[in-house]
Task: inverse folding
């Protein structure tokens, strides 16, 4: 029971990070129907940006307060990554809109290879650790066997930030004109254009929002694990995509729900079965969900038009 | 960096041809570049003596990039507008006539000559390298490169059956390559079977895996199919890493027995290849033999594919690619059609894998990662899906070109001693993939020869050919 509760906490933390990345996948798939393969690497890039900004804050500017530093790091990472997301869409996807269906996927794979190797060339191939911070934990209780169930401040920060950002984001999509335009483009791009919505701009903004949320995930990832390397984009990317599919691709609450489920499955699997095969578990879930439940938990079933 | 140059080239929208607008465009491009560079290039993280990260600013580098982008954007929008619009008009004009007469023009005659020329070059390639380099041993690098390219040509042709003919988007093709390689490695090291027995066995095993993995994904289409096959590919790799008892884990399998020349080993002894044929012993004999082995294997792949295309099953593949629902309503069994495509594609992947194992003498799961699948798929798509010669050209371009970067060591004098062109290989490869898609989304050879001809031959433009829905 103690182990279970502890893993539940860990799983929800991990799941929050996956959920944030998954939103980027699900929005892009919803609006232009492509798997943005490079999204995992955008996430990795944002973690690097966060790392560098954090070092600037602590080593150069001498900001002592961790909270302030984290806040600055997150804002800068979001801005820079959003610019990357915007540029990637402009360069690699926009010229291919209306082209044949495979082209954007191949282009996205190329972009993914480019981004991870770009970071490798620009920042070196080694793992980059940051000094540990926010180490304090709240001990919830100590079990009879001496196993302590603890909730760390890090985990609280991650879950709280995720919750706040998702609320803001939810508000944007549901209540603002941007969100309305986005949902309209999702339903029928041509009709939306006829009604005076700037489709290109809406798609660009979708990429910008997706990248900004990935940057939050990147900052949280760096905070949680304290280390990042150029190869860290692929596996979290695939897992977040799994989360998006599991929740029902195109559905935003689905992406978060899927992220939490994937996070829980991964930690539970590691705790009770074998840690070596945790990625196999994630990939298997991806395959199983796609094969038996392609519309996911909250997604709309796809109607085939002949 | 050329990559980021591209970033902004297609970045901003159409601009006026006057100077002010071009300047504005250039400045905007440079500002975007500056924003992209800001932490990630401007500040490099390095490990200090105390194992802490320190930052090293690189202002000069960022300024160079921004200046490059400015110049590029400026020139493009100052001179490039006219060219762009004219090209767009031309493209629109070309979009209409999609079926054309295929009367032998000079272009057609040239492409008819290209095939034998390509084949001739492939057959005489080792001889040519020996003549150029003056001896067998100095030409080792070039023959190795030829083997590498031909391996990818073969893999490309194998995947072409699945992706190009049947229209099933497979992102996990490397799994079958791995199955072939591990089949040979395990059969040879544990049971002592020879390469010539293992080669067909590896093919059969890979085909079996093709059916096994193909069966669950029959209902999936398009991107979903791609992602599931990717997941399968990764699962196989992860199992290879973690199932240490059988596969040796991440360390891989060492000392895989080498192939013999139909029973004659390549050794210096009495029974060796050199002694039997009255040659002076050289380690290169084996390399040249490998070259011709993979050439023959690749040609077999090509030959079988071309023949299959004319058989009912090949016709069914192409029909499936064009329209699955029509296919089903015409009574074609889509299940067996898809499974044969997976199985035959996988079989050739298995042959190539087993060749890879025997050539390397050492395999590890690292050789079968997702990047390999992406490279093979890129070869097929860049070649113009379904076109055999296109795939071969694409393999030469995508595998050969990055390899040439290794030889750019002389650039060190220009960029400073720390410059390692090898670092940029995959970076440029990724960029190249994006650029190729933007430039020619339908691949290098985008027209098709029709499979069935009524009275006269007509060429079909690629835009008429469906890419399949998986």
Result:
């Amino acid at each position: 029971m103690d182990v279970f509760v502890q893993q539940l906490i860990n799983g929800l933390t991990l799941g929050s990070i996956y959920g944030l990345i998954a939103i980027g996948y699900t929005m892009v798939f919803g609006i232009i129907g492509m798997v943005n393969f490079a999204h995992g690497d955008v996430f990795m890039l944002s973690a690097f940006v966060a790392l560098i900004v954090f070092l600037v804050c602590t080593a150069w500017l001498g900001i002592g307060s961790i909270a302030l530093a984290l806040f600055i790091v997150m804002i800068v990472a979001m801005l820079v990554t959003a610019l990357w997301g915007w540029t990637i869409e402009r360069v690699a996807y926009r010229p291919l809109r209306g082209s044949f269906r495979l082209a954007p996927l191949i282009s996205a794979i190329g972009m993914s290879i480019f981004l991870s190797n770009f970071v490798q060339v620009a920042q070196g191939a080694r793992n980059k650790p940051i000094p540990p911070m926010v180490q304090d934990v709240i001990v919830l209780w100590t079990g009879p066997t001496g196993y302590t169930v603890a909730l760390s401040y890090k985990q609280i920060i991650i879950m709280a930030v995720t919750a706040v950002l998702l609320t803001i984001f939810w508000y944007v999509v549901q209540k603002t004109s941007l969100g309305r335009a986005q949902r309209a483009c999702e339903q029928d791009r041509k009709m939306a254009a006829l009604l005076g919505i700037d489709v290109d701009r809406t798609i660009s903004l979708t990429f910008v929002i997706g990248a900004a949320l990935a940057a939050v995930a990147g900052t949280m990832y760096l905070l949680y694990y304290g280390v990042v390397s150029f190869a860290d984009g692929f596996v979290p990317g695939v897992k977040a995509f799994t989360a998006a599919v599991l929740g029902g691709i195109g559905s935003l609450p689905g992406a978060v729900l899927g992220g939490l489920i994937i996070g829980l499955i991964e930690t539970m699997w590691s705790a009770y079965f074998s840690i070596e095969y945790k990625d196999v578990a994630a990939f298997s879930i991806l395959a199983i969900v796609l094969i038996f439940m392609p519309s996911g938990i909250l997604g709309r079933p796809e109607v085939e038009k002949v | 960096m050329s990559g980021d140059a591209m970033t902004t080239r297609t970045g901003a929208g159409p601009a006026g041809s006057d100077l002010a607008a071009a300047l504005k465009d250039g400045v905007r491009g440079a500002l975007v570049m500056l924003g992209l560079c800001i932490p990630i290039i401007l500040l490099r993280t390095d490990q200090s003596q105390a194992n802490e990260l320190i930052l090293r600013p690189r202002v000069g580098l960022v300024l160079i990039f921004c200046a490059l982008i400015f110049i590029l954007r400026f020139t493009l929008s100052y001179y490039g507008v006219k060219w762009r619009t004219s090209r767009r008009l031309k493209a629109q004009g070309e979009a209409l006539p999609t079926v054309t007469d295929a009367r032998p023009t000079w272009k057609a005659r040239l492409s008819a000559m290209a095939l034998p020329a390509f084949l001739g070059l492939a057959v005489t390639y080792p001889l040519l390298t020996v003549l150029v380099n003056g001896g067998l041993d100095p030409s080792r690098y070039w023959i190795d490169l030829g083997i590498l390219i031909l391996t990818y040509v073969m893999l490309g042709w194998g995947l072409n059956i699945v992706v190009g003919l049947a229209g099933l988007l497979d992102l996990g093709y490397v799994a079958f390559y791995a199955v072939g390689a591990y089949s040979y490695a395990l059969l040879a090291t544990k049971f002592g079977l020879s390469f010539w027995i293992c080669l067909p066995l590896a093919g059969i095993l890979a085909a079996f895996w093709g059916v096994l993995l193909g069966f669950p994904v029959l209902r999936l289409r398009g991107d979903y199919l791609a992602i599931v096959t990717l997941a399968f590919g990764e699962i196989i790799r992860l199992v290879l890493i973690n199932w240490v008892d059988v596969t040796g884990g991440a360390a891989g399998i060492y000392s895989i027995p080498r192939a013999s020349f139909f029973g004659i080993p390549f050794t210096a002894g009495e029974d060796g290849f050199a002694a039997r044929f009255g040659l002076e012993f050289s380690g290169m004999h084996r390399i040249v033999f490998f070259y011709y082995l993979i050439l023959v294997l690749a040609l077999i792949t090509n030959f079988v594919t071309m023949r299959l295309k004319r058989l009912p099953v090949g016709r069914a593949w192409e029909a499936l690619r064009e329209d699955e629902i029509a296919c089903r309503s015409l009574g074609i069994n889509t299940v067996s059609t898809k499974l044969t495509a997976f199985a035959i594609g996988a079989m050739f992947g298995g042959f190539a894998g087993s060749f890879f194992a025997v050539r390397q003498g050492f395999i590890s799961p690292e050789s079968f990662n997702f990047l390999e699948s992406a490279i093979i798929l890129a070869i097929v798509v860049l070649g113009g899906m379904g076109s055999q010669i296109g795939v071969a050209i694409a393999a030469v371009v995508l595998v050969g070109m990055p390899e040439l970067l290794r030889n750019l060591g002389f650039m060190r004098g220009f960029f400073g001693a720390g410059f390692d062109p090898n670092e940029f290989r995959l970076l440029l490869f990724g960029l190249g993939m994006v650029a190729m898609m933007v430039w020619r989304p339908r691949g290098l050879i985008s027209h098709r020869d029709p499979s069935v001809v009524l009275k006269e031959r007509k060429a079909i433009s690629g835009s008429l050919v469906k890419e399949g829905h998986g």
